[in-house]
Amino acid sequence: MTAATGVGSMPGTDVAETLRVIRGEVGDFVFVPELPARGPHAGMIGRALAVLEGLEADLQPAGWRLGVGSGSDLRRARSLLAEDLDAAEELLDDHTGPVKVQVTGPLTLAAHVERARGEKLVADHGARRELAESLAEGLTAHVADVRRRFGRAEQIVVQVDEPDITAVLGGGIPTASGFGRHRIVHPPEADALLRPVVDAVTSAGARSVVHSCAADVPVALLAGAGFTAVSFDVGLAEPDDSWSEAFEAGIDLWPGVVPSTEAEVTDAGLGRRVEGFFSRLGFDEDAYTTRTVVTPTCGLAGASPAWARRALSLAQGVAGAASRNGEGRDR
Questions:
Q1: Pairwise CA distance, residues 197 & 194, whole Å
Q2: Which numeric CATH code is attached to 3-330?
Q3: Distance (Å, rounded) from C-alpha 263 to C-alpha 271?
Q4: What is residue 304's three-state secondary structure?
Q5: pTM of the model
């Protein structure tokens, strides 16, 4: 059976209302949303920093920076995360399907957060490693907390967001001056940062999924790091052998097919895009129906509330049609 869920971010500032929308539109596969309209403390970087163990950070004019300030900004980020989990626990107390939470991955986090003396962590091998280890340790406690809160859920899923992974691997992250680019982080180095995070999620009893809405997603690297599924933008993915090899090796593929901002689309048209992608990989619906989760192409923070609701509904519509087609062939 094909499922549907959201990527993570949603518009608005009311987490309880957003959770009601999510549960009403995607059905069984709910997620705890990020609401960046509340400010940087609630955005993807602030939320990931709130999970770190043993590192402090504060907001500076250029953004988040480790090891400076009083830590009041990080305390605010942690408070918002706890409040959101409290709201989700109350509203989803009877939920028995999977529950997904999101966290920014170590490569994207290193591309956005600065060291105490300036420049992004991505420029410093030791700082990158320390960040990944802190994130992995923090996720152990975070997943345990989520499991405790949603004790009836059939599965806890941790989605590791890596929208900037292609830029990090390709040397595309700008320096503070804007005139240069930080050096390439080679695949073995990237693997060494991702693996502790995946291992922490797995050891805590949750499922690790990676999401990237970038072009040229390094699916072989992500599969090798241990992720059980790759969530991606169908419109940006090039369906080459790396995708089919990952799928044949047991890595599920979660097609992001619903536009993240308003567009004229239909369930049937979006379903054909999903079918077309897998067809180009050489797989028919029997092969992928039970191994896909349909999502929007990226987060919905930039969408109107009406489109965010509609996008989740469309994802569910595509998933439902695929499931019905699969059941029809079985009869």
A1: 5
A2: 3.20.20.210
A3: 15
A4: coil
A5: 0.95
